[in-house]
Every structure is written in structure tokens, then in C-alpha cells.
Amino acid sequence: MEAAGRWLDSRVSRRGFLRRAVIVGSAVATAPMTYLLRPGTAYSALIGPPDCSSGLCVDPWTDFCCNIHGVNTCPPGSLVAGWWRAEGNTFCDGSSRYYMDCNSADCGGCSCGSSGTCSHTCVDCECKCNHDQCVERKICCTRFRYGQCNNQEPCIGPITCRVVTCVPPWEWDTTCSRTDAIAQSTYTHNAACLHPDTSPKGPAVARPAVMAGATWQLRNSLGGGGADDTFDYGVEGDIALMADWSNAGVETPAVVRGVRHGFSGDDRLTWYIRQVEGPGQPQLVIRYGLPGDIPVVGDWDGDGVATLGVVRGNRWLLRNSNSPGSPHLDFTFGQAGDIPVVGDWNGDGIDGPGMVRGNTWRLRNSPTGGIAEITFNFGQAGDIPVVGDWNGDGIDGPGRYDDGTWEIRNSLTTGSADQTFTFGGGGQQPVTWHRVSG
User: Fold this and answer.
1) 12 vs 233, 239, 405, CA distance in Å?
2) 3-class DSSP assignment, residue 220
3) DSSP at 250
4) What is the CA radius of gyration of the chain?
5) CB 163 within 8 A of CB 102
6) Considering 100, 128, 192, 329, which has the largest number of Cβ atoms within 10 A of its Cβ?
7) What gap in Å lies between CA 190 and CA 210, rounded to an integer?
8) What is the dihedral of CA 86, 88, 89, 90, to 10 degrees?
9) Using one digit for the tens of pLDDT, what is the confidence trace for 55-82?
10) How high is the pLDDT of residue 32?
11) Alpha-carbon gap, residue 191 to 387, rounded angstroms
12) Does position 264 have pLDDT exceeding 50, yes or no?
């Protein structure tokens, strides 16, 4: 079917019946009798759990990942196995809205046969209505794969949940092809958790953190002392970042792997992003950037969500969504060898680029190329620059870190530090974070 789909891609209309026949073939191979003897679409080949006689759980659709795990992404232990779209959707400003199936990645030793999917009894996920409520949709029940993504995996489990996004699947997961599938019947399917919270969270005072090896140490207040929170996340050699990846009002950890050197054959950096506080599995795993790029993160469009980017020499390549793909913003600023910094330099809610050369800071208020709009001197050559809203006025200020010594300044002007304290030590990466309340 995979080979036939590729052959048809170049020879027939995307909406042609021959391509749809490939999708139907997947349903026939997975659940032949159910699909052939029951009315409905290929996707609805399997109905919900038999012990629920009423409510949404008996419709043919699986529940959203964000209704189960709180995050609109495939949970750990699953992978995107296929997708479809609803066209002209108002939720995506009239463009396509994409629905991606997250199937269990491990069948626990069970075989799949020709279907490519194993039974829900083989995986650590019970087939039921979400939260055991008949008014919610099902989880871990449907054995089906559209087959446009992760075809290198010959045996996967049932669908655990669905991701819904305006981002094309081949940008979300680079294993996904563009082989089309349409299901307009999902046009109105919705949940509050699918819509990013863009309400302003208000300014918050930055707090210091350090990371060495895989160990993170965080302070809950701006100043010296011992760590208030310690946890492990990442591996030795990762680059540490903290940002508000979902406009939740708190900055959470991420690591970027492959910056200093890539493994043989690697051609991309890998971002492992946590969207909740503390240790655990990443909610987002994204390949973006090249070995040698410097990772940066910022809110480039003012929607409250921090998104990824890289600096390559003096070229800034930034995304407005936390997903792989081409840069949404591509401009030059500074020169190769400068140290990039990011901050909201004027309090407008949009982060701008900055470059530190020696002890000279050059900043722009918007993520665009051009000459520096703010220039001043602070710190010493060889310091690690840090940035944070040190006084809670909504404007980021400069800082420096040197073997555990922090010096910070509240204004974007030449002068001495407003505050000096000690936290961390040599060989540790400094990062800043904040929490709006608590």
C-alpha cells in the first residue's frame, strides 16, 4: 500500500478515488469484516467499547490528546501514524485543520500480522471511554492507521488519542507524507484545550537557575542561596533553555541536543521540551536547526507562547510554532561570533533579538533585521550573558554570569550592576525562568 500510494501520488489527482482506495485498503487489512459489513467511512471501521450504550463514546472517533494528557501532542510511548483534514475550517482561519492519530508505539511483543496494528490488550492502555465517562470519546480502542506517517514501524498499537492542529502533519512530524485524506464530518469537533490561551499573564520577576550534566537547580526568588528545586532532565552535553511554551504563566525546561556536535548521520538539532514543571518525559520532541547553530527561544509574535529558533552565524531562523518546518522569520542581525540574546526590550510583549560582542550589547525591539536600536556596555568579555525581567516591570534587562556570580541591571543602559549574588558554580549553564503566581 505504501508503494502504491507513492506511485499514485505522481499520477492522479490528490482527491482521486485511486488514492482513497489506498486508505480504504488500510481499513480492509486492519478490520475487514467490520469495515465491509458495517456502513460508514474507513476510519469508523471500529466502534467504541461495547459496555457503553449511550453518549459520545459510541461514536467512531477517539478523544483528543489534550483532553487526556493536558497537552495537544502525542504522549510518550506513542507516535503519529497517520492524518486527515477538514477543509476550510474556521478554527484555522479558513485553512485546513489537521487531525493526527497517535498510536501506541509498542505492542509488548505481540505481532501485528498484515494489519500493521496489534490489539489494545497488547499495550498498557485500556480500551474505554475517556475518564470512564460515556459522554466522552473513547481511547485506546481503534485499531487503524491511515499510514502516511512512521511507516518504518511495521507493528504499532491502537490509537491512543488525537492531535489537532493548523500545522501540516509533514511539518509536525517529518516522517509524514502529503498523501491526502479528508473527513469533513470532523469539521465541528472541538475542545477548549485545543485553543491556546492567549490571555496576558502579566509581568513576573525573573528567577535564576543553573544546569550541569542533567541536573537542574532552581531558585524561587531572585538572589543567592541554595536551590529550592532540583531535578534531572536531559543528558550531558545538552543546551539548557527555559520558556513558557504554552502561555501557562510559568517557564519550564527544555534541552537541545546536537548543538556542539552531531552524531554520525545527524543533520538536525533535537529539541526536548517539557510543558509542565519538573522532571519527566518531554511533551514535544522537535528536530530543528543544524549542528553548530545556537538555539534561541522567544515570543516572536506576541501570542504569549515562546517558540524555538536558531542563530546561524548572524542569520536568525525563527518559528512561530513549536514544530519542525521552514522558518517563519529569516533575517540577519549582528555578526558571526557574537553571543545571541533574546528579550522583550520595550514591554510590548514581543521578544526581539540581541547580540553581545565583548561587553557591548546591541538590541532590536522586533524580530527583524537592521541596525541596533539599543546599544550599551555591561559586564566583561568572557562572561555568559543572561537576560531577565529583574524588577517585574515587563521589560527585560541585561545580566552576566561568571562561575556562579550573577550581576544584573534593570535598565538597558551603560552602568554598574544593580544587584550581585552567588548561585551555582563553574561549569554550570545559567538560565532564567519565572512563574506569574506562586
Assistant:
1) 48, 46, 64
2) coil
3) B
4) 24
5) yes
6) 100
7) 40
8) 180
9) 668 777 899 998 988 778 788 788 889 9
10) 44
11) 36
12) no
CA distance 342 to 353: 5
pLDDT digits (tens, 9 = 90+) for 177-235: 999 999 888 888 888 888 766 677 777 899 999 999 999 999 999 999 999 999 999 99
SS3 24: helix
- pLDDT above 90 as % of the chain: 52
Amino acid at position 318, single letter: L
β-sheet bridge partners, residue 433: 207
Strands 429-433 and 207-212: antiparallel
How many other CB atoms are found less than 10 A from the CB of residue 275?
21
Residue owning grid cell 500500500: 1
Q: Which amino acid is at 196?
A: P
Helix (H, G, I), strand (E, B) or coil at 84: strand
Is residue 399 a contact partner of residue 388, using CB atoms and an 8 Å limit? yes
> Residue 43 — very low, low, confident or very high, per pLDDT cuts 50/70/90?
very low
- The one-letter amino acid code at 430 reads P
349-375 per-position pLDDT tens digit = 999 999 999 999 999 999 999 999 999
Q: How many helices (H) and strands (E) does the chain have?
A: 5, 25
Closest Cα partner for 238 from 282, 300, 299, 283?
282
Long-range CB contact pairs, 5-8, < 8 A, 24+: 5/147, 5/148, 5/177, 5/179, 6/177
Backbone dihedral region of 7: left (phi > 0), alpha (psi from -120 to 50 degrees) or beta?
alpha
The 3-state DSSP class for residue 368 equals coil
pLDDT given for residue 55 in this prediction? 61
Residue with cell 492531535: 163
CB under 8 Å to 222, separation ≥6 — which residues?
Answer: 205, 206, 207, 208, 388, 390, 408, 419, 421
Distances (CA, A) of 212 to 251, 285, 430: 18, 21, 9
